[in-house]
Design the sequence.
């Protein structure tokens, strides 16, 4: 009995029992839709396979995903926009199939670009909203345009054509980007739509209009646009894509000018700050982002948003309670435990209020069993002690990121970027052979901090430290990527529990060794006689 107890304690301390307790038999489920959030969904699918869940997903684009869900050919869909909006003059009819929306992950729509000066990659490009809109509507066609130079006083911009790269398929990424343009740059957007033969006011569209004969290039899927931009021969290109894809490719993303007058990147911190101003429809949990675009916090990234899972709420179209049990367990996992990986993958974890709302939506799935109704056991990294950890820890932008005559320098030559090393590549993206950067002149820009040392790993889009050099500057801890801080909030608790159990196991094993000889000595006849 003692030996069995010892073995049991050792198993608890270091074995599978430390994992979340999910059942080992689930009906397979399938989904389709957004490629914007596909990197997160794919990571979660791989994670839950260890619990016996088989979840397949095709990142075919939000429009196709919504169509397939309406037809009943998939069990769930993922999209950045709901049914029922007018898209390019066409009404996206909601399906007869009963459904609900559930936020699954937040993120920033990044502007990934490929630009070099003097053979060195530019990694610290800054753009205002007005300039972004003019680039993607063909009004700005050269990288040395005075408007771009005004945003980038420290870069000697080349006389090279700007080549916008857009999605050729119906996508949530396009819908998010054009929603922002229709709200913040409506005159420029409406003029472009009219030239492309669209009715105005143009509003949101999932299918980006391309004017025949223009320099705009259309590619299919998030991987398609990101893959096109990263090609060595496609210098001068720029695209809109979820930040995860730029991070995986090891390519930089633009710092966008916000309402406070600072240029900021799409980090998990800055997205979390921006989405404090998101309005959520209490009936279906869809998002209203008008105040996100104009948030006055210096840390706020304007092009921030959520992605949604479209859930079935009735047994129909081949969806059973067995499927519902799997889907609910999958959703229960990624709303809590799965959010820990969001920053490392290029996303931002959901805040507590959306996790609570999401749990309520899970309960509407036929056959659902919600395991994390008690949020004390939900390992979401954004909330601890009643506060949003990302928001509380978000660093202020550097003074040189303020609009004006100075400009920060990121991606300094010889600094590691995601994709070039094993530890910092979250999604296994291809390495860029010459992803070094720095100022085109080779000198620090005015207001830039000195080099902290070659041992530091830098996020190429924002200049945030991923792992600090030793010893680093005073700001190293504040700039450290969220993956090294808030993501592992649950790890210390697990480690303490394992340590305690190992100590107990050691005590039991000690008893196993000492007790039998003592007992034998006690019962042995005195004097050696029988």
Sequence:
């Amino acid at each position: 009995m003692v030996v069995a107890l010892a073995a049991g304690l050792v198993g608890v301390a270091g074995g599978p029992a430390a994992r979340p307790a999910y059942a080992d038999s689930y009906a397979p489920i399938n989904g389709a839709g957004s490629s914007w959030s596909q990197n997160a969904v794919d990571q979660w699918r791989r994670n839950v396979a260890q619990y016996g869940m088989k979840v397949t997903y095709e990142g075919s684009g939000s429009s196709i995903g919504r169509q397939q869900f309406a037809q009943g050919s998939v069990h769930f869909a993922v999209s950045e926009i709901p049914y029922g909006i007018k898209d390019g003059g066409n009404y996206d009819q909601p399906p007869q199939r009963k459904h609900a929306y559930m936020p699954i992950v937040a993120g920033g729509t990044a502007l990934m670009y490929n630009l070099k000066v003097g053979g060195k990659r530019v990694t610290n490009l800054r753009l205002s909203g007005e300039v972004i809109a003019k680039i993607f509507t063909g009004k700005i066609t050269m990288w040395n345009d005075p408007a771009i130079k005004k945003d980038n006083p420290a870069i000697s911009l080349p006389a090279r054509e700007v080549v916008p790269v857009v999605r050729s398929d119906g996508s949530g990424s396009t819908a998010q980007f054009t929603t922002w343009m229709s709200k913040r740059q409506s005159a420029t957007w409406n003029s472009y739509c009219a030239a492309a033969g669209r009715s105005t006011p143009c509003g949101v569209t999932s299918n980006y209009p391309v004017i025949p004969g223009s320099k705009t290039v259309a590619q299919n899927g998030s991987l398609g646009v990101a893959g096109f931009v990263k090609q060595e021969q496609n210098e001068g290109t720029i695209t809109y894509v979820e930040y995860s894809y730029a991070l995986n490719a090891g390519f930089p993303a633009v710092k966008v000018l916000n309402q406070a007058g600072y240029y900021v990147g799409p980090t998990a911190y800055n997205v979390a700050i921006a989405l404090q101003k998101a309005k959520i429809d209490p009936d279906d949990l869809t998002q209203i982002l008008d105040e996100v675009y104009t948030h006055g916090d210096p840390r706020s990234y304007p092009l921030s948003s959520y992605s949604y899972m479209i859930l079935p709420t009735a047994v129909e179209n081949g969806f059973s309670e067995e499927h519902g049990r799997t889907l609910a367990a999958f959703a229960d996992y990624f709303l809590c435990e799965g959010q820990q990986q969001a920053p490392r993958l290029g996303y931002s974890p959901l805040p507590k209020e959306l996790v609570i709302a999401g749990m309520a939506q899970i309960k509407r799935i036929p056959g659902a069993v919600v395991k994390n109704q008690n949020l004390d056991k939900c390992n979401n990294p954004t909330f601890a002690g009643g506060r949003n950890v990302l928001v509380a820890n978000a660093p202020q932008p550097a003074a040189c990121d303020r609009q004006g005559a100075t400009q920060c320098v990121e991606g300094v030559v010889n600094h590691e970027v995601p994709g070039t090393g094993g530890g910092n590549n979250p999604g296994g993206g291809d390495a860029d052979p010459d992803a070094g950067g720095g100022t085109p002149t080779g000198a620090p820009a005015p207001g830039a901090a000195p080099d902290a040392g070659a041992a530091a790993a830098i996020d190429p889009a924002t200049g945030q430290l991923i792992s600090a050099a030793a010893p680093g500057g005073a700001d190293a801890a504040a700039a450290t990527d969220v993956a090294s801080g808030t993501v592992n909030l649950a790890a210390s608790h697990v480690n303490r529990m394992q340590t305690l159990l190992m100590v107990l196991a050691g005590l039991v094993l000690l008893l196993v060794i000492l007790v039998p000889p003592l007992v034998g000595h006690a019962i042995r006849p005195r004097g050696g006689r029988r």
